[in-house]
Write a structure and sequence with these properties.
globular, Rubrerythrin, domain 2, alpha+beta, 176 residues, Ferredoxin Thioredoxin Reductase, two-stranded antiparallel ribbon, 6 helices
Length: 176
Amino acid sequence: MTKNQAIIDSMKKNAKDNGYSLCPDTQLFDDLIDGLATNTTRYGYGSCPCRIASGVKKYDVDIICPCEYRDADVDEFGMCYCGLFVNDQIKNNPSQLGPIPERRPREVLDAALAAAETKQISSEEKTIHTKSAKGAQTIKVWRCTVCGYLCAREIPPPICPICKAKAERFEQFALG
């Protein structure tokens, strides 16, 4: 199985599991899959081919396909930012594919780009310490103040996957 076929199969399964369809425009679909394959080779993860990735995974986690913004984009516009995931209306009328506003907060993009420039990640007191094949890592824990959702990552998610609260509603969670 080729890398592109593995990506296609993964995206088909994800679309089916979440009630979406994939891009009905064959050329755009092929370009998006090629972009995901390129980013997987370049960065080691499939960041959205329509967004600027930093190359630092913990800063790009929100744009790894399917990105954290997909559900909100499809709900509001019928398609995700890049157009890979669409609702039935767009699937049945591909002429409606078009640009939609970027949901990724500017401060998240700025932080990712700054990390790419320095390749340094500062640590803070509220973190999880893990060991892996790559050595010790430090990960912050964030709590949604609206619903209590917890996640371990360098920066809070731009949108809570549970209650859809924005990043500013997250606080660092004190461990132990």
